[in-house]
Structures are given as structure tokens and as C-alpha cells.
Amino acid sequence: MLTVEAGTRVGALELDVALEVPPGQCLALAGPSGAGKTSVLKVAAGLLRPARGLVQANGATWLDTARGIDVPAERRRCGYVFQDYALFPHLSACQNVAYPLRELPRRERRDRALELLGRFGLAEKADARPHTLSGGERQRVALARALARKPEVLLLDEPLSALDARTRAGAARELAGVLRDSESPALLVTHDFAEAAQLGDRVGVIDAGRVVQEGTPSELAAAPRSAFVADFTGAVVLTGTARGGPQGLTKVELDGGGVVTSTDAGDGPVAVSVYPWEIGIEPAGEAPHGSAQNRVTAEVLSRTTVGNRVRVSLAGPQPIAAEITLDSAERLGLRAGAMVTASWKATATRLVAI
Amino acid sequence: MRRFALLLALSLAVTLTFLTLPIVAIFLDSSPAELVRSLGEPGALDALWLSLRTTAISIAIILLVGTPAAYLLATRSFRGRALIVTLIELPLVLPPAVAGIALLAAVGPSGILGGSVESAGIQLTFATAGVVVALTFVASPFYIRQAIAAFASVDRVLLDASRTLGASESRGFLRVMIPVALPGLAAGTALAVGRALGEFGATLMFAGSFEGITQTVPLAIYDRFSTEFDAALALSAVLVAVSAAILLSVKLVQGGRALSGWQVE
């Protein structure tokens, strides 16, 4: 179990968090840059001393400002993977991994480092200097180095963000495997919700130094408690004014024009959120079909193909993004400038008071 | 456009000629055989040996004390840090004669600390130890300044990484900071060696010029140039060769690092 509580000022940011990670689990802290994610890791590792804080790992207290306890960073058993990996440039991959193994005799140190590198498929790169390695290889050396001391806690700072898109998928799978096998609690930070959802058992969305919502990835996506969380999880967010309607339905007058209906309750100013894949597209002016109650006329700004899906960016009274299949996009002959109707169900429409 | 390129080339040619001609002249003014013979004269080799010895000792002191001090200044921010750095750099711009007077005023026989130095049984004026003090005083800022820059340019996250891997700060300093900052530290050492080997004014005023005791190569050159010009030339040639060797070795060290690439990281 890892407990991190911290209240402190970091530059202009007021950090105030309290987190718990059970053994073998990974909590992914996701939020925009400057939200204080890295500061949380630094407090856990002992690289940043908060004004008020508590850090406990598997029963041992590493920091308790109330009792004046502050174990120095070098005596906290943390496996810390830094954002740009922070590999020692003057040491080979093997020497990097062997760096923390000071307690072992010299011979065993190299053997153990080689064994770890082998586990990450890097046995042949043991004598290579970091600058000759690819981004993915560096990331694996950093992981091997962080695991070398059998850490009680794993701390990962944007472990995938320095990788190109092609390497990232493989590295993410590998990292997910490491996290699954690890019995230590892990704290991972990322600015990408999808990455957090993939690697974290639970996700905490952090904004301006506070965890605004914590839950499983699907809980967050299905029931965002604020517009920020909804936006961050990738939903389309529209603003408007809600008033109760018949049969428990809520009507929302959108800012800039248009009315949508939601099965959520709401009154007054609200943020309406809907996921892009819930939004369908048909040519403007066609008679409505299907059960979608919400219809907004908009102009196609651009279309981007992502695998077998197409993300369509729409300029209505407020910007909307829809995700449809490549087939439908071809069938509709979507082009920039075309007028279309975006439609979605009232049941897929979340309301949050703002 | 063409004319401008010509102007650039011309200014380079003038600069190069002006800077290299005097140095080349040292070797051309008398025959190589003459140079070698002059070196054999009594006193010449003594001066050379004294210069190398005092320079080596003062560089050792500078490295041992200056490296941790530079590391502290590069990695901590505190009130008065800028003032301390300025004070350390002050001897850089001090005229050597002023440095000599300053040392006399501080630790000379009638200086403010002269009594305690004497009662400790240490003689500095007219003694080889005094040469070491003078060299250390004028050469250390060259090293420390460069060392601060070298440490400051190392990414601090490496030190953080070292700590999370179980290494105390002192181990991180020895195993990570010094090796990564090495090219910069080597350049600073070379500057300090060059300054120490060439030191003249402060040594003359503080330690005097006694053959075999305080007469380093620059003092010996000054001592001989009116009476035995060939001997002065020979010693000058040796200093040129030593200085060039230092410069070249630093370029090689740094070039080698650049080629192996890790400082670009």
C-alpha cells in the first residue's frame, strides 16, 4: 500500500492531494501539464519536501511532516522512471542498470544487470551508450534500472510520452505487463487519458494541484463529475442552459443556438457532454430516422482517418467532433464545407452543472 | 558580395599573422641546436622543474578544493550566491602586481595574517611555498568559473535519478556529476595550468626571484633576457611547447567526447 498526502506550494501551483494505491495496483494520475502530476511523484520519492505531507509505503513511514520524519530519497526504495528517462550518458546500458546494485559484489552486479536487460530483450545492447539506443530501448533500460533494486513502490513519469506513435503501442503493452506482474503499488502520471485508462487500474484526474475525480477509467468516462473531466476523457463539451421538461427529460438551450435533450436532470447553466463515437452524421435536410433525439446542423471543417474510423470536425453554433466508420464517411461523401446534421441520443447526453 | 568575402579573408589573415608570427619567431631566431644547448645551462632546467612542480601542486590544490566549491555554487541557490561568485572571479581581472601586493598585505611578513603564518612555522616569502600560493591565487578563478558552468550545464534530473537509485549525494557527485561534467572541468584545468605556468607578476612581488627556490620559467626568462638572450629564447620555446601541448590535449579530450557523442545527449 502506498499513501501520499501533500499540501504545498510549488511555484504558482497550490498542490493538495491525498492518494492511496493498494499493493499490485497502478493508479494513473492524468491531467494537463502544470497540474502538479510530477510534483506528486517527487513528494513520494523524497525529491520534493512538501510543507505538509505524509508518505507511507508498505507500513513504513517515509515522510510525516507532523512528526518530523523525512527519510532521504536515497533510502526510500522507489523505482522512479523519469520523463526523459535520465539515463547516465557516460555509462553503458548495463552499467546504468547496475548503478543501484551497490550492495552486490562486482561480479554479481553485472550478471544481475544483464539478466534484467535480457528480460526486456536488450541483452545485445548491454554495452551500448544511451545515445546510441532508440527511444524505446532507452525506455526499457530506464525500466530495468528502476526495477533493479526491487523497489517497494514504482513511480512512472510520462513513461511513454517520449516515444513516437509506432513504438508507443508496443511499449505500452510491455509496460502494462510489467505493472501486472509487479506486486508493488505503482503511481503513474500522464497527460493522456487514453494512456491512463490503458495502464491504470484506477485513474485520478488532476487539475490545478487537486485530484478532481478518481475512479476506474470507465467510471470516469461514463459519469464525469465536471466539465473538465468530461473534456479530458475525450468527450465533446457544449455549454447551455437547462430546464426540466416532460417525462423526466431535460431540455438544454445551447449557447449560440439549438436545443438538445438529456435523460440527466439539470437546471440552470450546464455543460453537456457526449462522446464523439455516440454522434452520427447524415446529410443536412434529410428526414430524421432512428431514435436520436438530438440534432444539430453544422458544417464539416475537416475529416481525419484514424484506422478504420473517421474523426469529423464540425462547426455548429459550438464545435463538435464526431467519430464514424470509414464506410459511412465514404457513403456520405464527406468533404470540408458540406452541411450535415449531427445526431445523438438523449441517453448518451451527460449534464454537469457549471 | 565578393568584395566582402575578400575583406573577411583579409582580416583573418592579419589576425593570424599577428598572433602567430612572434611565436614562430621564437623558434626561428636561433638554431635548434642553440636552443637545446641553452637549456643545458645551469639554472634553466632548475627553473623548468620548479615551474612544473609548483604548477602541479597548485593545480592539485585547486582541483581538490575548487571542485566541491564549484559544485556547491552550481547546484544550490541561496542568498549572496551571486556576490560569492563575483568575489571568486575578482582575481581574474586583478593586475598581477596588485595580486602580489594583496598577498603580501594578507600573509606577507607584515601582513594581517603574517604573524600567525610565521608562528605556524611556514615561510612563504622567498620560499617555494610562496610560489604555490601566488599561482593558486591567480589560477584558481579560471578553473572554478569554468567548473561552475560545467556543473550547472549537467541536467539536475541525473542527480535526482542517482538518489532514487540509492546513491547519496556524495556518490552521485563522484559517479555522475564529475564524469558528465568532465569535458568542462578539463577545459577549466587547462586554463588554470596555462595561467599558473605563465604567472609572473604576483610571484615576483610575493615570493621573489631566487634561482632554484622561487625562480619559475617566466621569472628566469625575465632574468636572462638582457644578458643571455639565447637562454631566454630557449626557455620561452619550452613554455610555448608545453602550452601548445596543454591546449592540444584539451581539444583532443573534448573532441573525443564530442565524437563519442555523450555530451550532446
Give the helix proportion of chain A (percent range): 10-25%
What are the segments of chain A in which pLDDT stays under 50 over at least 5 consecutive residues? Answer: none
Strand content of chain B: under 5%
Average pLDDT of chain A, rounded to a whole number, is 89
Number of domain modules of chain A: 2
Oligomer: heterodimer
Corresponding CATH architecture of the largest domain in chain A: 3-Layer(aba) Sandwich
Main sheet of chain B, how many strands, which sense, barrel? Answer: none
Task: Report on the biggest sheet of chain A.
Answer: 6 strands, mixed
Radius of gyration of chain B using CA atoms only: 22 Å
| Helix coverage percent of chain B | over 70%
How many helices of chain B in DSSP terms? 12
Give the tags.
heterodimer, A: 354 residues, alpha+beta, Rossmann fold, OB fold (Dihydrolipoamide Acetyltransferase, E2P), six-stranded mixed beta sheet, five-stranded antiparallel beta sheet, 9 helices, 24% helix, globular, B: 265 residues, mainly alpha, MetI-like fold, 2 domains
SSE layout and pairings?
The complex is a heterodimer of chains A (354) and B (265).
Chain A: E1 2-10, E2 13-21, E3 26-30, H1 37-45, E4 52-57, E5 60-64, E6 69-70, E7 78-81, H2 93-98, H3 106-119, H4 135-147, E8 153-157, H5 165-181, E9 186-190, H6 193-199, E10 202-207, E11 210-215, H7 217-222, H8 227-232, E12 236-244, E13 250-254, E14 259-262, E15 268-274, E16 280-283, E17 294-306, E18 309-315, E19 319-325, H9 326-332, E20 339-344, E21 350-353
Parallel strand pairs in A: 3-9, 3-10, 7-8, 8-9
Antiparallel strand pairs in A: 1-2, 1-4, 4-5, 5-6, 10-11, 12-13, 12-15, 13-14, 15-21, 16-20, 17-18, 17-20, 18-19
Helix pairs in contact in A: 3-4
Chain B: H1 2-28, H2 32-39, H3 44-75, H4 81-93, H5 96-107, H6 114-119, H7 128-152, H8 156-164, H9 169-198, H10 201-206, H11 217-224, H12 229-260
Question: Would you give an account of this structure?
Answer:
The complex is a heterodimer of chains A (354) and B (265). With 354 residues, chain A is of the alpha+beta class. Chain A folds into two domains: 2-228, Rossmann fold, CATH 3.40.50; 235-353, OB fold (Dihydrolipoamide Acetyltransferase, E2P) (Beta Barrel), CATH 2.40.50. In chain A, 24% of the residues lie in helices and 36% in strands. The relative contact order of chain A is 0.12. The model of chain A has no long low-confidence stretch (mean pLDDT 89). Chain B folds into two domains: 1-30; 41-260, MetI-like (MetI-like fold). The longest helix of chain B has 32 residues, at 44-75. Chain B is globular, with a radius of gyration of 22 Å. Chain B starts with a helix and ends in a 5-residue tail after the last helix. At the A-B interface, strand 7 of A face helix 8 and helix 9 of B.
